[in-house]
Design a protein that fits this description.
Length: 192
């Protein structure tokens, strides 16, 4: 539930839930430990606790290294998910370039079958790129997200794509932004 709480911006509740999950799982294996402390890192960053966020992120990286050295388990917390957490931690702490780099790595490592995750991550990456002032890179990333978007059935992803339209609208004098906007308008459903 911490994952949902942090996604909704309820940092304190996310932190409480992440701490409770970690406390309830003292014997967790390294992959589960990586997930648990990765979630603690994300929640700690959201409440502004930089020291804890970075400490938890370091613990998650160590646990993931240990997990990956043993065996790879398809469908569980993996390096792509860890980079996703790292990206959000860095963004919450104000390190937007670090967030972009981590999200790019998450996207690179994401398995092809996880379309919804990939579309969501690419939308997030594009928003971070736009935040840095990299409009054309953001447009290219949003195009990548749009490539797979029609194959995804998700209200949250629909919302992310509508958000993209709003974020791009002030930049329509730019040809890349205009082309993206025109393409997206043909694909993205109007608000429900």
């Amino acid at each position: 539930m911490s994952v949902q709480a942090v996604d909704l911006g309820h940092g304190r509740e996310a932190m409480r839930l992440a701490d409770a999950a970690a406390a309830a799982s003292p014997a967790a294996g390294p992959r589960m430990r990586a997930f648990l402390v990765g979630q603690q890192a994300h929640a700690a960053a959201q409440v502004g606790d930089r020291v804890k966020a970075l400490a938890y992120l370091g613990q998650a990286e160590v646990a993931m290294e240990k997990a990956e050295s043993r065996e790879r388990v398809f469908g569980s917390y993996d390096p792509s998910a860890l980079y996703y957490h790292a990206s959000h931690v860095r963004h919450e702490l104000g390190d937007v370039p670090g967030a972009v780099a981590a999200m790019k790595e998450s996207d690179r490592l994401c398995y092809d079958i996880y379309r919804r995750s990939r579309v969501k991550e690419r939308a997030t990456l594009a928003e971070f790129q736009l935040e840095m002032g990299h409009l054309e890179a953001a447009c290219a990333t949003w195009h990548d997200a749009l490539d797979e978007y029609p194959l995804v059935q998700s209200g949250r992803i629909d919302d992310r794509m509508r958000r993209m339209l709003k974020l791009v609208r002030p930049h329509l004098k730019n040809s890349a932004a205009r082309a993206l906007h025109e393409r997206a308008r043909m694909i993205v459903p109007a608000s429900a």
